[in-house]
Design brief:
The protein is α+β, with helices and mostly antiparallel strands. Helices cover 35% and strands 16% of the residues. The chain is built from 15 helices and 16 strands. The strands form 5 sheets. Strands 3-2-1-4-13 form a 5-stranded mixed sheet, with no helix packed on it. It has a 5-stranded antiparallel sheet with strand order 6-5-16-15-14, sandwiched between helices. The longest helix has 36 residues.
Length: 456
């Protein structure tokens, strides 16, 4: 009898292990089945050249960016400039760009589903419509004029990314030998908007100011005297100019390092970390399933001088452009913004939609009252950074000129948003080693926003 009982217990344990294993497998199958099926070695989905053998990618206007011709080969848009401008959002034939639609959304393009797998009874391949407008990417590509960097514009109400351009880029129909000129092609397969971080400079003063607005009661009653160099922690914090007597809004507009270094120290490392975390900069966003990389800040354990430089966007600060753009959207939208998305629609060969666009919101990245005051300060800043370039747009901005060392020119940043219910757009521009944030990145922003706002 005891042997029977032991065997019965053993059978129960084995059955439980089997059920547990089956449950784990089913969970992983449901969660990861699409990526398994779309693995590049799956010859059902990829041709002999390693190209996804089905599926069409269009922009928001229905312009075909890539499709498969009658010979089973993948083709791209007619214009080589448009092909370069949309490379990092569409993808390259070899699948080296992981954020491109051909890699990131291979399951959607192939028509994969849980019931029939890679074989779709609804037709061969799907048409995936992106949220971007190829024309805006084209404008951004020309505005960067061969310089490394990225441009992003999105609707902070709906989450639709209208422009996402990363450079250096290349024509997918004529890929270069990137090993022949490593400096020119450095990071060419990387989408700088989603997958990189960069020294930000003064654009992060917006976060330091949001903390100061809430934590320093007499902030708006104060003035400071900027002589061009202020000692913090026994070492200088320097400014480009001697700004004279200024209040906090003038300090933001004129980008006074001294004032914001002093504010960062008054706030303290813990508070600074708290507000930069709350702003979403150190978080990861899922952009239609593509994860952004988090920004990095070091406040804890810093000296007073290091904390001061961190508060103005230097020291070891490194910001992801997409996350900064979302924070701008939250400031514009009263504290919360839509999470960016790239996929607008997916249709089968028979025209049936298999994807429904659903808006997603961030948490509260900034308190509503603080957002309002910061937006007003950024509108005032626009007066100092060439507002006339933007016509009659009610624009709120912050530029950044980030020193990167090594004898290289600074990174040029320009970020902000439009306060207009008909044009609820936030944007970010980075020109690596471009020089002045306002003069260089601001000029790119003006060129890109013009057709988006004025509709051509």
């Amino acid at each position: 009898m005891k042997k029977i009982e032991k065997r019965a217990v053993l059978c129960i344990v084995l059955a439980a292990a089997l059920l547990l294993g089956l449950g784990i497998y089913l969970y992983r199958f449901v969660r990861h089945g699409a990526s398994w099926a779309s693995f590049p070695s799956n010859r059902h989905l990829y041709n002999s050249q390693g190209q996804l053998a089905s599926g069409t990618v269009t922009d928001r206007d229905g312009d075909i960016l890539t499709q498969v011709n009658e010979d089973g080969r993948r083709t791209y848009y007619d214009s080589s400039t448009v092909r370069c401008a949309t490379l990092h959002v569409v993808g390259d034939p070899s699948g080296n760009i992981g954020t491109g639609a051909l890699s990131a959304f291979a399951d959607k393009l192939s028509g994969y589903n849980l019931f029939t797998g890679a074989y779709s009874p609804l037709g061969s391949g799907n048409t995936l419509s992106l949220t971007i407008d190829a024309h805006y990417n084209y404008v951004a590509y020309n505005a960067l004029d061969g310089r490394k960097g990225t441009v992003g514009v999105y609707n902070y109400k709906t989450g639709e990314i209208l422009c996402m351009m990363s450079n250096p880029s290349f024509d997918p129909l004529d890929p270069p030998d990137v090993s022949s000129d490593s400096e020119r092609w450095e990071g060419v397969y990387l989408n700088r908007f989603l997958s990189s971080t960069f020294t930000p400079g003064s654009v992060v003063k917006t976060v330091t100011m949001s903390a100061a607005i809430e934590k320093i009661p007499d902030l708006y009653a104060r003035t400071w005297e900027c002589t061009g160099s202020t000692e913090v922690g026994g070492q200088p914090i320097t400014c480009i100019d001697a700004h004279g007597t200024i209040d906090v809004e003038e300090a933001l507009a004129k980008s006074c390092n001294a004032v914001f270094a002093l504010l960062a120290n008054e706030l303290g490392a813990q508070t600074m970390q708290e507000y930069f975390d709350k702003a979403g900069l150190t978080s990861t966003y899922s952009v239609s399933g593509i994860s952004t990389v988090p920004s990095k800040f070091v406040f804890s354990g810093t000296s007073a001088n290091q904390l001061g430089w961190a508060g103005v966007g230097q020291y070891n600060d490194a910001v992801n452009p997409c996350s900064l753009m979302v924070f701008m959207g939250a400031v514009a939208n009263g504290g919360q913004a839509a999470v960016p998305q790239l996929v607008m629609d997916v249709k089968t060969g028979f025209g049936m939609s298999t994807h429904w666009y659903r808006e997603k919101k961030t948490g509260v990245l900034i308190e509503p009252m603080t957002a309002s005051r910061l937006a007003d300060a950024m509108a005032y800043t626009a007066e100092y950074t060439g507002k006339s370039r933007f016509g009659n747009i009610d624009i709120c901005v912050k530029s950044g000129t980030a020193e990167v060392g090594g004898g290289k020119k600074p990174n040029a940043w320009f970020t902000g948003f439009i306060r207009d219910p008909e044009h609820p757009y936030a944007f970010v521009v980075l020109v690596e080693n471009g020089g002045g944030g306002s003069s260089v990145a601001g000029a790119v922003a003006a060129q890109v926003l013009d057709p988006i706002v004025n509709g051509y």
